[in-house]
Amino acid sequence: MGQDIGNQDTFPKLLLRHARERGARPAIREKALGIWQTWTWLELAGEVRAIAHGLSAMGFKRGDHLALVGDNRPRIYAAMCAAQCLGGIPVPLYQDAAAAEMAFPIRNAGIGFALAEDQEQVDKLLEILPDCPMLEHIVYDDTRGMRHYSQPQLTSYDALREHGSRLNAADPGFVETEIAKGRGEDTAAMFFTSGTTGNPKGVVLTHAALIDRAGVAARMEGLNDTDVVLAYLPPAWIGQNIFSYAQPFATGYCICCPESAETVMTDMREIGPSYYFAPPRVLEALLTTVSIRMEDAGALKRALYRRFMSVARRVGARILDGKSVGLADRLAYALGDLLVYGPLRNVLGMSRVRVAYTAGEAIGPDLFVFYRSIGINLKQLYGSTETSVFVCIQPNGSVKPDTVGPAGEGVELRFTPQRELLIRSPGLFKEYYRNPQATAEAKDPEGWFHTGDAGYFDADGHLKIIDRAKDVGKLADGTLFAPKYLENKLKFFPYIKEAVTFGDGREGVCAFVNIDIEAVGNWAEKKNLPYSGYTDLASREEVRALVRECVEQVNADLAGEPEIANSQIRRFLILHKELDADDGELTRTRKVRRGFIAERYAELVDAMYAGRESVHVEAQVKYEDGRTGSISADLRIGDAQTFASAAARRAA
Asked: Strands, E, within 273-400: which ranges?
């Protein structure tokens, strides 16, 4: 079962406990040059001591902030804990952020120290130094390409560790003394939200808040030091941090850092995680990969897949939940597990997964059911940066595709008359850093956090989130319009990567679509359709017909849902470019910035509602190296068939 945390009220105190009680067990693994390297809890504690000494000698003190920029790496997490040992506050930043995006959080938090993974991240920090003169110390991990850098702010991680090791040998009790000064109510970390509007806000979280929520979920799922987790999402995202830092410190389990983004699937199959977390976009991408492989398979394999997936959709989730299923169906499912589901779980790297979570945004019910139907115990949880993630968790045996479960231990929930969800929890944030106005708007005097999410409780007390409260609207005829709900249904199809829907106050719903270049490209090759790139492929009439089929299937499903049957998508266009965080169209966690998109592409939205058949567009795009370019295209607008609602059919 999950470990009893007892009086270890800070993360450094938990680290010392693990070093004492399970020092020889693996704490963190990293794949480098094709080989998995393991750090035990004892080795991790030694590394943290050395880095804490080194940072202290550099002038880092209680209350200081340490920026961390890089992928999941043992040294990133060691530095995070080292800062906490000294009473400092780690501030992870998104490693794929442009230099200018890093300037605001560094200025806002007055950050004087940073750990950068490699030359790319160092270059970004050096670029913003004129705007961030308080950043006086930059420690870099990977030395490749750094030989001729001579800026006085730079220090190598190896040099910092070596100096810290010597200081530790001379004063071995220093770090433990500093750790003892820490208290649960101290700030443990700060995470900058990648909000869809305005500047990001620094969310201040205490040790007590993070440890409490990590422990609640661990006890509920029976996590222990034999579990294994893959750390592959940005460390700056609270979701990754809770699974790769807070919960391992609370339970003693091992996290594994993949070699690169390109090797995640291979690395996942090698380590066989028992506990897994993925936002819906990752699960969508995995399903797209499966769909492409099945299209490439022979006729017999495709027939077996279709046959047994039909069985899985009918009874797979019921078997997973321990519910009653007929003998014939059980035997058919067992055969399907041998021939299809088991090999499929292995391809996905999920053969050993005991519990998997999805969160970050709403997941399409069809996508959710797919994973559960093949025997993966995927569950939804609900939370946010401000709540230390865990607010609602679906309990085993009571998992529904359209809810996020009941309130977790210690959590209170209620709704305003406008249906906005309010939360009171031990995991709530302390404040938005240097932003008392935003703090007061989000957290009222009674301690209720105003989430901005709209939803309701179902008959079993499970929470159902339908959208952001500010995004939920109505069509001109009064029909409920929940854009995210519609977008998720579209994104279930492997050919659709992103979707943005419009309709508030209008006569009907229209949509922008981003095709998935890999899935549609594979489909086009089978159809012998030549194309030169995304824009060319997206403009093909055959591709528009393919997307129309997906839209019309969504409309057919919506016709059976009384409250939103009239929210069927009437018109759509395939965008000339992929929505991109570098162009401001997505957040760094891949959430659509719907308002920005509506404003930027207002001409396209107006053309759809004006009944036009096409529209010319010219747009600027930003490339990875910082250069800008332009795209010019004529976009065709498609009409989609809509269907009579179930109520209208009965009346007829």
From this structure: 275-277, 355-358, 378-382, 392-393
Length of the chain (residues): 652
Q: Record the tokens describing residue 34, joined without a space.
A: 């094709």
pLDDT tens digits along 516-530: 999 999 999 989 999
- Which residue has 């943290």 as its token pair? 48
Is the distance from CB of 370 to CB of 289 less than 8 angstroms?
Answer: no
Residue 288 lies in a domain: no
- Strand ranges of the sheet holding 65-69, from the earlier edge strand across to the other edge: 89-93, 65-69, 113-116, 137-140, 154-156
Domain span holding position 107: 11-207
200 is a domain residue: yes
Q: What is the pLDDT of residue 275?
A: 97
Give yes or no: residues 459 and 485 share one domain: no
Is 634 in the same domain as 486? yes
Residues 420 and 478 occupy one common structural domain = no
- What is the secondary structure of 64-99 as a DSSP string? -EEEEESSS-HHHHHHHHHHHHTT-EEEEE-TTS-H
Cα gap 398→115, rounded to integer Å: 43
Tokens of 572: 């759509």
The amino acid at residue 45 is A
Same domain, 52 and 125: yes
Helical residues (DSSP H) of 88-232, grouped into ranges: 99-108, 119-127, 157-170, 174-180, 207-221
**Statement: residue 269 has pLDDT above 90:** yes
Nearest residue to 433 via CA among 137, 107, 83, 114: 107
CATH of the domain at 548: 3.30.300.30
The proportion of the chain whose per-residue pLDDT surpasses 90, expressed as a percent, equals 75
Rounded to whole angstroms, the Cα distance separating 148 from 129 reads: 18
Based on the structure, what is the number of domains in the chain?
A: 3
Domain assignment of residue 273, yes or no: no
Contact 15, 44 (CB under 8 A): yes
Residues 6+ apart with CB under 8 A from 34: 259
Asked if residue 81 lies in contact with residue 57, where contact means CB atoms within 8 angstroms, the answer is no
198: CB partners within 8 A, 6+ apart: none
